[in-house]
């Protein structure tokens, strides 16, 4: 259950809304109107390896970060992305690692984010640096049922934390393409998760949008290429058309209005729109901020044109965040750049 302070705040908001609600005429039937579109406007935050910070420092960074996300970027949601670990791509031991924040720390950050008016999603992801040139979509455990039993052992305390702190959604996994054929195992995970966590349960798909986990809401990591014949064709309009086409392709199955874009990001590198999921450029790679800014703006236009359920821009690094951060010389992050202005303008379009 939520903490008492959160309950009191919620009760106060209900009372204020009731006080200022327009009076209804006795005996008159209320006109039928379409439900308003209330999209998730989110920023993804990466919490990897923040274990070096004491709680006091984590709360200090969190307060500054969440205030920035809410006021500067006009967001109403934040996803807390945190890694789990396993020995290798064929091992069966997914567990909490040294780089993984504790459930209690995530609960603290959740309550703090809610104080700033942000809905919170928990979003665990498989740490890839020790997978021997493999990636999370291609892992091949030697004992799949054992992998799922261990994964549930990792997930359970975080589901409890999310429920107690009042998180709004929980991603049970992301980009686990090689494990998607084991749908009965996922069904058991999701069913057990729903007995603990009352909010939305999400699975984030990437390369195979036609296959997802049953009984979950539809998340999507939008790293599909948009093919342009020449760098001269880079523009917001070209990327807008590309995103609309990608979000409406036949393999997406359901209406785009059911779609939550869980990750929207791209390196600020010339030609990166041809492989937006590549994040291994050498440090000396020249910055092309226009590609990133136009990519973000095109995705924003598609978000509004198709009335998607939600959009999270990827990402802000919790460990390095400062309100004055300027990432102009870096190709992956975007705070303090033209891309940050695109994010703020995007979410300001919907009040």
What does this structure look like?
With 351 residues, the chain is α/β, with parallel strands linked by helices. The protein has a domain at 38-223 and 251-267 and 309-348: TIM Barrel (Alpha-Beta Barrel), CATH 3.20.20.80. 35% of the residues lie in helices and 15% in strands. It contains eight helices and eight strands; from the N terminus they run H-E-H-E-H-E-H-E-H-E-E-H-E-H-E-H. The chain has helices spanning 4-20, 55-71, 103-115, 144-165, 183-196, 236-247, 289-305, 338-348, and strands at residues 40-46, 77-84, 119-126, 169-174, 200-205, 217-221, 259-264, 310-317. It has an eight-stranded parallel barrel with strand order 1-2-3-4-5-6-7-8, surrounded by five helices. Helix 3 (103-115) links the parallel strand 2 (77-84) and strand 3. The longest helix has 22 residues, at 144-165.
Query: What is the structural class?
Result: alpha/beta
**Approximate strand percentage:** 15-25%
Q: What is the CATH first-level class name of the domain at 38-223 and 251-267 and 309-348?
A: Alpha Beta
Radius of gyration: 21 Å
Write the element-wise H/E pattern from the N-terminal end onward.
HEHEHEHEHEEHEHEH
| CATH fold naming of the domain at 38-223 and 251-267 and 309-348 | TIM Barrel
Fraction of residues in H or I helices: 25-40%
At CATH level 2, the architecture of the domain at 38-223 and 251-267 and 309-348 is: Alpha-Beta Barrel
Number of contiguous helices: 8
Task: Give the biggest beta sheet.
Answer: 8 strands, parallel, barrel
End-to-end gap: 30 Å
Average pLDDT, rounded to a whole number, is 89
Strand order of the main beta sheet, please? 1-2-3-4-5-6-7-8
At the fourth level of CATH, the homologous superfamily of the domain at 38-223 and 251-267 and 309-348 is Glycosidases
The poorly predicted ranges are: 1-29
Shape: globular
* Count of extended strands: 8
